[in-house]
């Protein structure tokens, strides 16, 4: 049963990692003049022509940055059945030392998604104008080395071995954005631009584990945890039970989710043609705030407890990651 929690953590981690790797970051388009959505990176950039963006046919941008990459977690696999070509670091065919030597004391991953639902760009009012409705999501994670050490080698250690996991944090938020932009040529060399964004809050979650000590104890783990979780989602509330020391969180109930706050933001940018072959440009983007409603928060009691596995979480015995 203890193997299940490690696989559960692993599935969450791989979902975070691969979702940002399915497409190239749009930032490389900053220097490509023909790209329609370049004004997202610098509001001073004008389109070459008018355009309309429709659902499913518009701009989709993803990005991933960090000090670890997908190749640090995916390995070639010589499957006797020929069914699999790749496996993960959790596979017994990957040595713990080989995997752990690639990691850092703190492993950082940042991902973002920007999807245009509807949009248009057109010339008028002395410049280039844009109106767009988009969905945006950002995720930041700081994952300490000790967590991966525990996931990979925890089941191989003798009773009494303790893993000390510190300062782990995962933050994620999503919102809708209605943006109005205008770029204006001051003269033949200088162009300035700005955007006003109305932000419609969706949801956010912020989990911070200050301390997580896991001691191997036969068929159980002795756990001491100190951490907090905070989040906001329309219609969400904790399911709690009074255990004599306060409200113990049993789960989260969501009733009629919807817009969960609002905010404002702005983009500012410029471009200056130094000569025929050299363009100087710069921008400040997403300067603003979101005021969240219905914020819920909880924390651990920092008291030791025993964990003997999740119930009803199964893994495929034929999976090459089975260890």
Automatic annotation (TrEMBL):
Say yes or no: keyword Protease present.
no
Which of UniProt's keywords are assigned here? Answer: Signal
Protein name as it appears in the record: DUF5723 domain-containing protein
Q: Which domain of life is it from?
A: Bacteria
- Indicate yes or no for the key word RNA-binding: no
Q: Which residues form the DUF5723 domain?
A: 43-316
**One Pfam family for this entry, by name?**
DUF5723
Q: Where does the UniProt annotation place the signal sequence?
A: 1-23
InterPro entries for the chain: DUF5723
Give the organism's phylogenetic lineage: Bacteria, Pseudomonadati, Bacteroidota, Bacteroidia, Bacteroidales
């Amino acid at each position: 049963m203890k193997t299940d929690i490690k696989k559960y953590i692993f599935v969450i981690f791989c979902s975070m990692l691969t979702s940002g790797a399915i497409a190239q970051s749009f930032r490389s388009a900053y220097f490509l003049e023909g790209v329609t959505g370049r004004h997202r990176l610098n509001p001073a950039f004008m389109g070459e022509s008018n355009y309309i963006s429709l659902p499913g046919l518009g701009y989709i941008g993803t990005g991933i940055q960090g000090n670890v990459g997908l190749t640090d977690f995916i390995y070639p696999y010589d499957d006797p059945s020929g069914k699999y070509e790749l496996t993960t670091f959790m596979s017994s065919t990957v040595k713990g030392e080989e995997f752990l030597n690639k990691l850092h004391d703190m492993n950082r991953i940042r991902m973002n998604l920007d999807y245009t639902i509807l949009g248009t760009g057109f010339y008028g009012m002395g410049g280039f104008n844009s109106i767009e409705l988009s969905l945006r999501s950002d995720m930041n994670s700081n994952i300490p080395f000790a967590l991966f050490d525990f996931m990979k080698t925890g089941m191989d250690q003798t009773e009494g071995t303790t893993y000390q996991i510190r300062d782990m944090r995962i933050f994620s938020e999503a919102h809708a954005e209605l943006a109005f932009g205008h770029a204006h040529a001051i003269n033949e060399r200088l162009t300035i631009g700005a955007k006003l964004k109305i932000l419609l809050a969706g949801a956010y979650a912020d989990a911070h584990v200050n301390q997580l000590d896991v001691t191997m104890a036969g068929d159980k783990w002795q756990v001491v945890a100190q951490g907090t979780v905070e989040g906001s989602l329309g219609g969400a509330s904790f399911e709690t039970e009074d255990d004599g020391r306060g409200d113990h969180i049993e789960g989260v109930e969501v009733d009629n989710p919807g817009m969960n706050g609002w905010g404002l933001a702005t983009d500012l940018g410029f471009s200056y043609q130094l000569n025929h072959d050299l363009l100087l440009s710069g921008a400040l983007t997403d300067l603003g705030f979101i005021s969240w409603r219905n914020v819920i928060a909880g924390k651990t009691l920092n008291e030791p407890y025993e964990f003997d596995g999740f119930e009803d979480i199964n893994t495929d015995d034929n999976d090459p990651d089975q260890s």
